[in-house]
Amino acid sequence: MLESGHYLLLTVFSCLLRNRSVEVPTYFAVFEGQRYGNISEEMNGMDFSDCSISCMKHNESHPCHAFNFKETDGSCQLIRKNQSHLVKSEGYQAYVQFLCLTDYPKIQNAEESFHGWNGAYPAPRGGQVVFKCKHPGGFTDSHKVHVATCASMRPDVWCTTFINKRTTMLCPPPPVYPDCRLSKIGKEYIGTTNVTETGRSCLRWDSEEVASSHDSVEAGFNTLLSFEEHFLNQEPSWHKNFCRNPTKMARPWCFVEDDGVKMEFCHIPLCDDMSKKFFQFRMEGSDVPECKMSQKGGEYVGVKYRTISGFACVPWLDLDGNKVDIMIGVREGSFPDEITESHNFCRNANGNPGGPWCNIKDSQKPNLKWEYCDVPFCDFDDWGGERESGDQYESNLHPMLRDREQHLAVCKNNQKLVRLV
């Protein structure tokens, strides 16, 4: 009855002032057991009408959208902020205009847009926040979008199409490299998805079933290359049973057992912004990963174009007719990306043990035909902790980084390594 009486008093007072052509806000009692925080002004020994009138007083720079009043001692707290939060009532009753002063419920990882307001508080009645999940699977409850609306029938209440629970991951984070593909066909993909679009488990690339029947399956294998040469780093065993695209099909795939060995495509999402800029190579500020996940670095698709000695790389298709360079044309399918006439970035299409390299031409050193590039490992600390991997959970390092320590002793001096073609 106390709240109803206060609301009636405010309404009568508002009507009297409206007759004088003065626009007066109306306040409503809200949030039993709670009051507004971030108080702007506090006064004592007031009655309810004095407190409400103090809040009504016009202040363009700091309008009063809400106040707290404690009837037992006449304490009055004014909220001259555009946004507030709730705390324990401590005997106060909260009052607010018909708007939303408190924050709207959030959906972690979701993309937000505003309808009916610009996102600046206080939110008007009917103002909406539209949530979209950028994860390829969308929201886990199968909704395409979710909405939070500043209620039209109750002051400072957000109505949502979702249940706001901290324990529920409604929108999983979008996949990040290397668990997504940078390019359309995903030749460079080295993530850990190991099931196909139909849900079948992938066979190991080095399994006896695959080795004995891969050439009888229409999967795009080049007869001029050995089976191993189709793979990044030329090591089928390193790729285990993860989805890959060794033959540059439409997208990553793998072999499955289905009344014989067959190939099936896998669902590998694109890496959002990275994929959009994959072919927009720039000499500085590249948006593709400037690091390698394996010792050999066959998956590297960055834009380094100088060797460890500072020599500029020559385009891969800049052939001079020798046997080594002619083989580049045959091995074009072994590169993790498309080879164009100007492509001179460090790569390792032939599985050299020292990592990415490139061809060079220097009149001072005519016998030096190629040299390694200084491509660092990706920061494996970023892959720490427990993470989902394919259809199982892995811990600690990303699986593609676990061979790092055992290869750290490999010498990078190209004078001590033999180039394999």
From TrEMBL:
InterPro entries, A to Z: Kringle, Kringle-like, Kringle_CS, Kringle_sf, Pan_app, Serine_protease_kringle
Keyword NADP: no
Pfam families reported in the protein's UniProt record: Kringle
Domain Apple, first and last residues per copy: 15-100
Signal peptide as annotated in the record: none
Annotated Kringle domain residues: 186-271, 296-378
Keywords associated with the record: Disulfide bond, Kringle
SMART domains cross-referenced by the UniProt entry: KR
Cysteines engaged in disulfide bonds, as pairs: C243-C266
Gene3D superfamilies: Hepatocyte Growth Factor (3.50.4.10), Plasminogen Kringle 4 (2.40.20.10)
Protein's UniProt name: Plasminogen
Native source species: Darwinula stevensoni
